[in-house]
Design a protein that fits this description.
This protein has about 400 residues and is mostly helical. It has a single domain, classed as Orthogonal Bundle (Proton glutamate symport protein). The protein is built from 17 helices and no strands.
Amino acid sequence: MKFFSEQKLLLAMVVGIVAGGVSGYLWGEAMLAVQWIGELFLTALKMMIVPLVAASVISGVAGLGDVRRLGRMGGYSVAYYACTTLIAVAIGLVMANLWQPGVGVPLGGDLVAPTPSAGDVSFTDLVLSLVHPNIIAAAADMKLLPIIVFCIAFAAALSTLGETGKPVVAFFEGLNEGMMKLVEWIMWLAPIGVFALIASRLGAAGGGEAFLGQLAGLARYAAAVISGLLAHAAVLCLLLTVLVRRQLADYLRHMGTALMTAFSTASSSATLPLTMEGVKLAGVDDRARRFVLPLGATINMDGTALYESVAVLFIAQAYGIDLSFMQQMVVLLTATMAAIGAAGIPEAGLVTMVIVLEAVGLPIEGIGLLLAIDWFLDRCRTTINVFGDSVGAAVVGRLLK
């Protein structure tokens, strides 16, 4: 994609988001009429995910040659995910202690919502989620983790077959290039799609005044989450400039479309095709791009982990429960492990929240306090998730050299 075209698309995305916000604010529920356009764009992105992940992982892993290099790249990836998630949770705890967002929040009965139980979630369940008895069914259900595990194993097997495996690898390399070309075409629908997504979501919230009323009621909580996300974004930018030695402005220019799509869709997985395109334009090592990004979209949730640490302390403060330093360390470790390990569980974000609450003995009904503005903060944390994935690909690519 030419520089001019990339810049023009980025500008159109900004216009789409601003226009969607203004339209949703002014006309409220009337903007639900364009919801189908946003859903069409989101569906087009989701349509790309499974074939793109399969082609990218298989061609990337098989292209490594020596299978031992896969272990090196995998080790770097997991270490990066664990460290950045731990940092994110720590930042969330600091912000929650500084802002004290739950102090004085009324515990109205109408705010309480039913939540799923995490009681049946165990370590063995997480391990079993890595493998699926029917890989076609896993693809149909959009369960990416077992698909990635299968593709890694299949690519490793292909790399041992010599000449026999080369035509199969070539097929997936061609499939990968074809999928990336389709992604480029879908990207031109992005400005209209993000306009519809933002406008209709504000409309569903009752319009701008209704949303501002909800935001005002939980202003300190929203401020704690957003300031924490901005602080973690600064950490990621530091990693990019120090470890990768990349110019931040140049990298963000290439990633702009993916980040704005992440904010609009609130889905790391749906944004994956655009993330891979942006990282490719940024010149990140192709081996890291094909391996790290699909894995990161599945298990790397920096923004979500940070959000959950703030939310847990918010709930404790709202109920007047003082968490000790050691209990906050339990939150730190539990949120980090849950964010990385629970990707294969349905409603992963909500379930991991329940896991952390139960670890420190807090009422899970407190999640109902957050629901009014959760849809907005979900978009903010997803944007950080996607940015963390892209920086991870750049860091791992640099380490592989």
